[in-house]
Specification:
Elements: H1 7-12, H2 39-46, E1 55-60, H3 77-86, E2 88-89, E3 91-93, E4 99-101, E5 104-109, E6 115-120, H4 133-144, E7 165-168, E8 171-175, H5 184-187, E9 193-194, E10 211-217, E11 221-226, E12 239-244, H6 248-256, E13 262-264, H7 268-274, E14 281-295, H8 305-314, H9 317-324, E15 329-331, H10 354-363, E16 370-375, H11 382-394, E17 399-404, H12 410-416, E18 420-426, H13 430-437, H14 452-462, H15 467-484, E19 487-499, E20 503-504, E21 524-525
Parallel strand pairs: 1-12, 1-13, 16-17, 16-18
Antiparallel strand pairs: 2-9, 3-4, 5-6, 6-8, 7-8, 10-11, 11-12, 13-19, 14-18, 14-19, 15-19, 20-21
Helix pairs in contact: 8-10, 9-11, 14-15
């Protein structure tokens, strides 16, 4: 994954070699590194056994003074981590993006795949009330409120919540608007947390999660304590404090100074600087972020599939991974979800072929093509990747004009505007990627891929009960996208977190926003 740069790229000297030099966070160190340990727990740790006790402080980028503990309003990584500490969903995604039961003990589809019965496990809210089917329906109806703008709203769209009902306190019958074989993905959707029926205020939040709220200052910190009655078993830690440090250099400095024990989202250059040095432990979460470009298939020049196919062949994927991501990732194959359930791994890895690319451009009447590439510092490596691709394209006779936009409005700007743009995506099931981005009616269809026969294949998959048959349909869709789609996916970036050497239990294979990412209830301190 960290192969040497090519000679050609070395000459370009585009590697980012920054180091974290900003001043350390102005954090109160009173509880930092508090372990409360004695001789017995030291011996337990030496044997590799999780030990109980201590306070862990975790630094995340934040959202400012308007932050909330309303889990349905979660948008940022810090929101998701805090929500995970305080609340539960019916399901969450495993490392391969397969839904894993959480508050739901199990689920069962009806014969037509348009009715699903979900049975709840025995679990309680922090105030002692049991989690019931009415709580689930209240939570989902709140998210789906037409006046609301919650992120999970689109994921819940297939549910007819007016017709859904509680069969008994532990059983929910979900009526759907159409057959949906992948309905459990909805239960694991980002932000689809269960809250007590009637909840309208989150000043003193009550959830069913592994930690209980103690104090919260928006834009600064959240302190939570162990929930000894948690349905999956009490956490090892006594307390977790989430502290906000928006700058990556500040998170790194605080970790090095011992003021926090966990720092989220480090850049590859920082990781390379400190990895293996003994001061901190660097954890790379593979497959967390798809990296690529979008080609809008409804307008010139990309309305001609030969131009799209040429661009697939122009790109040097390894050079982009090594340059834009400092080697922290792996090459892509123009398909989303590498390593996830249903991924078409049987398709051959596409490689650079400039002669074929030039021939395709000539066939399409697009020789000496000039095109604008929209980008912005909206994600790690975007601007660097644009610069690298500009030089790669020139070798095929394509002139790329890089337009650097506003990072704050970038995603809105490129959804409908422009022709060619930098793009990335976090982890989600391949089915969700298709339904949200690649159907005629998809609301975030940045490539403008609108093909009725492709829509029909997706609907056929959702009406297919047999998983092998359904997988074959997903494979057909992916072969089509690999051949002529609008996503040029050149890589998959690692998500990087770092901890103090005293922190144990961090998952090393869970992409960001999956079940075992930010699982502070499973960490312990030496």
């Amino acid at each position: 994954m960290n192969s040497p740069l090519s000679d050609r790229f070395t000459r370009r000297s585009l590697l980012v070699a920054t180091t974290a030099t900003a001043a350390a966070l102005a954090l109160t160190a009173g509880c930092a590194g508090d372990t409360g340990e004695d001789g017995d727990t030291k011996n337990a740790e030496a044997a590799g056994t999780p030990r109980r006790g201590g306070t862990l402080r975790a630094a995340f980028a934040g959202g400012g003074a308007n932050e909330t503990l309303d889990p349905h309003a979660a948008n940022l990584f810090v929101d998701a981590a805090r929500a995970k500490a305080l609340y539960d969903k019916l399901a969450d995604f495993g490392a391969d993006l397969t839904p894993v039961p959480r508050l739901a003990e199990h689920w069962e589809p009806g014969e037509g795949l348009d009715t699903w019965k979900v049975t709840l496990r025995k679990a309680s809210f922090h105030d002692g009330r049991p989690v019931t089917a009415e709580d689930v329906l209240y939570s989902y109806r709140r998210i789906a409120d037409p006046k609301a703008t919650f992120r999970a709203k689109a994921s819940l769209e297939p549910i007819d919540l007016a017709a859904s009902r509680a069969l008994d306190p532990t059983t929910v019958e979900f009526k759907l608007k159409r057959p949906y074989a992948e309905f459990p993905n909805v239960l694991a959707a980002f932000g689809a947390y269960v809250i007590p029926e009637g909840t309208t205020s989150f000043d003193e939040p009550v959830g069913s999660g592994p930690f209980v709220h103690r104090s919260f200052t928006p834009g600064k910190s959240l302190l939570v304590e162990r929930n000894d009655a948690y349905w999956e078993g009490a956490p090892h830690l006594d307390r977790v404090e989430f502290v906000v440090a928006t700058e990556e250099s500040a998170r790194t400095s605080a970790l090095l100074a011992g003021q926090v024990q966990y720092a989220h989202e480090l850049n590859p250059a920082t990781a390379r600087t400190y990895e293996g040095g003994g001061k901190i432990e660097v954890i790379r979460l593979p497959g967390s972020s798809m990296q690529g470009f979008v080609m809008k298939t409804d307008r010139p020049p990309f309305d001609d599939k030969r131009v799209r196919q040429a661009f697939f062949l122009i790109v040097d994927r390894r050079e982009l991974v090594d340059g834009a991501l400092s080697g922290a990732g792996e090459v892509g194959n123009d398909l989303f979800g590498k390593g996830y359930r249903y991924y078409a791994s049987e398709l051959p890895q596409r490689t650079r072929d400039l002669d074929r690319a030039r021939a395709l451009l000539k066939e399409a009447g697009a020789e000496n093509l000039e095109i604008t590439l929209d980008t912005a510092p909206a994600a790690t490596g975007f601007v660097e990747a644009a610069g690298i691709f500009k030089e790669q394209a020139a070798e095929a006779g394509v002139t790329v004009d890089i337009k650097v936009g506003n990072k704050d409005t970038y995603w809105k700007d490129i959804l409908d505007g422009g022709t060619f743009a930098s793009y990335r995506s976090g982890a989600m099931p391949i089915e969700s990627h298709i339904s949200q981005r690649l159907l005629t009616g998809s609301t975030t269809n940045a490539t403008k891929w609108r093909q009725k026969d492709f829509d029909d294949l997706y609907q056929q998959a959702q009406s297919t009960r047999d998983e092998k048959e359904r997988a074959a349909l997903y494979a057909r869709m992916q072969r089509r996208l690999h051949d002529e789609g609008g996503f040029l996916i050149w890589g998959f970036a690692d998500w990087i977190v770092a901890t103090a050497p005293t922190v144990h239990g961090v998952s090393t294979d869970a992409p960001a926003n999956t079940l075992d990412w930010a699982r502070f209830d499973r960490l312990w301190l030496a």
